[in-house]
Write a structure and sequence with these properties.
Structural class: alpha+beta
CATH class of the domain at 23-73 and 232-314 and 463-527: Alpha Beta
CATH architecture of the domain at 23-73 and 232-314 and 463-527: 3-Layer(bba) Sandwich
Shape: globular
Bound molecules: flavin-adenine dinucleotide
Strand content: 15-25%
Largest sheet: 7 strands, mixed
């Protein structure tokens, strides 16, 4: 049974279940007048909509899938009671966003609460060595120092430096232009420490690519914030945003894929959905539809040649391959005096194995030899994710979408690839035997695109973050300010600067631009505390 989207939301009252589409409601919404129509309900577009409704604008959000959230969603993918994150789990990037940092929207009132796991990250090696990142940076330094005193001191020096990154300074201009690998190889002497610094966290940009130097410092962002998890699942962020929007008289409809932009007198005046319904916007349309698809939703000549060129040259990124497990135990890694079961761990045999990734990707080949993997067991820190004593485990590996045999080949081989990944994990965590595994769901790079069309070609950040698609070039030169070439149309989400991940920055930036164009600002809106 479908439920009605709109309802009165009372702050502090028990949280009502999230809305689903009702055809009666959809018809009402179709005949209603909205200031802004939002196409797609990822966390970024929901953030933009949240600031807009707070400013008093009437917003309608149309999501193509049955639930809102895009890649920030949780669901019982395997068995009843096991709440898996369908994509993202770690919300570190968003901790520096003023929305969370300064509590601008009071999302705690709408059900959002963060857990900050400690230890933060663990990397076991087959020779018995291991490095654990703890919330206390001195403790992490000691972990490196037990392998190499010099590398412990280097970790400490770079941790201090990381608080002062200033891209215009000569020191940083050189470092940020170097490759991730150049910096790690030159600063750390031991291969365990180098492997840790290459994969903590793993980046979709290969470590030897130029201009990836900033990634050499990304371990310190999680040293600062941990890898925060919303209690109850990643989707609690987007659920809280949806509730905020509805509490401020916004309307959210699901199962509403947008297929066309309505253009009137050269202006974007609304959208049309695949079911034939159409919705009009008095002031603006905000899209988080992938630019590769958006460009086909209005006549080509409306975009201008430079925009079309930018879309045509847009590149995918190196993709992920995900296996979700419902288990009776978490991973248990041997450590001195017993075992350790962290939320986040990474398997990477050696720095060379990380460098090999770029080659396999370029050759469009699957490689399951010592497969690097990021293992995430949220239920260790958040028992609400699984029935008592049980666990959810997500194994994120890295494989190309566009295989030589074509992306459809994934449907034939994904179970074998998942088996190989599990076999490798068992070499580090031998407790995860068959009897401990209750169920599994595998998401190949092709499945990730099927789940969310914004994951274009399996790109979890909508596309590569190479220099050609970063900063003022995202999505393309001339159009990085969230305003699109068609009057009245704005764009947010991972296709826009600064790109993907759960940062919410494209969402808040788009709100700032739209509110400016409407004659106000985020600061002014927040001053009027309602
Ligand atoms: C497996 C995986 C693991 C990840 N892990 C992490 C992590 O731990 N930490 C982290 O920071 N990041 C992670 N990421 C990346 C991060 O989740 C995404 O980059 C980010 O969530 C993108 O958010 P968004 O708001 O840009 O859009 P999305 O979340 O992609 O949302 C876009 C929405 O628009 C909808 N839509 C698209 N087209 C239409 C249309 N035509 N009509 C209507 N609706 C439409 C989609 O259905 C979707 O709901 C991960 C991603 C994946 C796939």
């Amino acid at each position: 049974m479908s439920a009605i989207t709109r309802r009165n939301f009372v702050k502090g009252a028990a949280l009502a279940p999230l809305a689903l589409t009702s055809s009666a409601l959809a018809q009402t919404a179709s005949s209603e007048r909205f200031d802004i129509v939002v196409a797609g309900a990822g966390h970024n577009s929901l953030i933009t909509a949240a600031y807009l409704v707070k400013a008093g604008y009437r917003c309608l959000v149309l999501e193509g899938r049955p639930t809102v959230g895009g890649d920030v969603k949780s669901a019982q993918l395997t068995l009843r009671g096991f709440q898996h994150d369908t994509c993202s789990s770690a919300h570190n990037g968003i901790q520096d966003n003023p929305m969370i940092r300064d509590n601008e929207l009071n999302l705690g009132d709408y059900g959002l609460e963060y857990i900050f796991p400690d230890p933060v990250f663990h990397m076991p090696f087959l020779d018995g060595a291991y490095i654990t990142q703890w919330r206390d940076p001195e403790h992490t330094r000691a972990e490196f120092a037990k392998i190499s005193k010099k590398d412990g001191d280097t970790y400490w020096r770079m941790w201090k430096e990381s608080g002062k990154i200033e891209p215009t300074e000569k020191f940083w201009r050189r470092r940020l232009a170097m490759s991730h690998w150049d910096i790690i190889r030159d600063n750390f002497e031991d291969d365990h420490c180098r492997a840790f610094m290459l994969a903590c966290p793993w980046s979709q940009q290969p470590a030897q690519y130029p201009m990836t130097g900033r990634l050499a410092y990304s371990a310190f962002s999680q040293q600062r914030h941990s890898r925060p998890l919303p209690r109850g699942g990643s989707g609690k962020l987007t659920e809280a945003l949806a509730r905020f929007i509805e509490a401020h008289h916004g309307v959210i409809l699901t199962n509403k894929p947008v297929q066309r932009l309505i253009i009137e007198n050269g202006k974007c005046a609304g959208v049309e959905c695949t079911d034939g319904s159409s919705y009009r916007a008095e002031k603006a349309v905000l899209s988080t539809i992938h630019i590769k698809q958006l460009v086909d939703m209005a006549p080509r000549e409306m975009w201008g040649q430079d925009f079309v060129d930018g879309v045509e040259t847009w590149q995918a990124e190196c993709q992920m391959f995900v296996s979700n497990y419902a288990t009776k135990e978490p991973p248990k890694y041997p450590v001195s005096g017993g075992t350790l079961s962290p939320v986040h761990s990474e398997l990477l045999a050696s720095p060379e194995r990380a460098l090999r990734f770029a080659y396999d990707y370029a050759c469009r080949a699957v490689n399951v030899e010592d497969p690097p993997q990021h293992i995430i067991c949220c239920s260790v820190a958040d028992p609400t994710r699984a029935p008592a004593g049980m666990h959810t485990i997500k194994c994120v590996a890295y494989q190309p979408y566009d295989l030589k045999e074509g992306p459809e080949h994934w449907d034939k081989i994904k179970d074998q690839v998942a088996d190989a990944n599990l076999k490798y994990l068992r070499r580090f965590s031998p407790n995860l035997t068959d009897d401990k595994i209750l169920a599994r769901i595998v998401e190949s790079p092709l499945d990730l695109e099927r789940m969310n069309p914004h994951n274009w070609h399996g790109s979890c950040h909508a596309g590569s973050s190479a220099p050609s698609q970063s900063g003022a070039m995202r999505p393309m030169p001339g159009w990085s300010e969230y305003r699109m070439p068609i009057n009245g149309l704005y764009q947010t989400g991972a296709c826009t600067a600064p790109g993907g991940s759960v940062t919410g920055i494209p969402g808040r930036n788009a709100a700032a631009v739209m509110l400016k164009d409407f004659g106000t600002s985020i600061e002014e809106v927040l001053q009027k505390r309602t």
